[in-house]
Amino acid sequence: MKTNLTIAITIVVLLTAWMIFGSIGANQKAAEDAEAQTAAANEKKPLPSVRVRDSIAQPYAAQITLRGKTEASRDSVLKAEIGGQILRIVAPRGAQVEAGAPLIEIDSQNLPEQLAAAKTLLTQRKLEYEAAQKLRTNGYQSETRLAEFAALLADAQNQVAATEIALENTVIRAPFDGIFNERLVEVGEFVAVGDPMAHFLALHPMIVSAEATALEIQKIDHDSPAIAKIGERTVQGRIRYLSRAANEAVRTYTVEFEFDNQDLSFEAGLTADIVTTTESAMAHKVTPAVLFLSADTDGELGLKTVEEGDTVGFYKTEIIGTGDDGFWVSGLPDKVKLITVGQGFVVPGATVEAVEESALQ
Length: 361
Description:
Belongs to the membrane fusion protein (MFP) (TC 8.A.1) family. The protein is of the alpha+beta class and 361 residues long. The protein has helices at 2-42, 111-137, 143-168, 214-217, 288-293, 357-360, and strands at 49-56, 58-60, 63-79, 84-89, 95-97, 102-106, 171-173, 178-183, 190-191, 196-212, 226-230, 233-242, 253-259, 271-277, 281-286, 302-306, 312-316, 318-323, 326-330, 335-341, 353-356.
């Protein structure tokens, strides 16, 4: 009995010792594993490497090219102001004439005789009125009767003036210095008041008319330096008109450039470009690959840079001009460290290892 008790006590002691020392060993192993994981985590991982170069902003004045065509500075359709038969075409088509020169004559019929009769009547009315004035002064004429003679005189004056205007309107004249571009009637035809008679143009000065987008029109003003390219020739001039309301059909704005054409070497309807220079602004020059590869996840066009602390930055940019080997963009600080290689593999805020391009050459 005593022997059994001794054996039981011994077993309990051994089990207790095994549990105590086993627990200590497990805890020790867990601690060692935790220390190993911490050490692994603390090991410095290699940073992604990107190639960079210093970019400094420069003054840049962008050029805007607007495609258009040459047009007459003044373009008129002359219409009949009196009815009648076309009597004579005075000036040949395409003739250069001065303001007031006769172009087309309409038969005056009996207008000269009507004018002569109206002038004779006017002379009579003047004598009657003068006589009535004298009688009124001497007290032999009433105020009412004098007013009647005054009205008759005014009516005769109006009749002379109206007949003179009608007779003048039988001759269609050049409204300004220009080109008798086209006659719209022939000799012998009858015209009524308001019928088109002739197409008349002023080609000096001349204009180039073009359409600008909403973005372009905001960068152009009347003082913007500008030239026009017509075929192989370049002409100097000025911006004379900027539309302030968009064309409803195409949502563009009309721009007119005026230039000297005194020798009439340019005709209306020629294809032409207006080239205007915008106000100078600070900009960076970049290659297309750098710009397009840096577009952010929202599709905003921009550039990635390396900031202080070797972190990646992103700047939304706007293309303000193009060159032979790249784009001019705005939206960046005056001096940046621009990522040129590897920008597609890093995100804004990430830490990177920046390698200068100059160090690789």
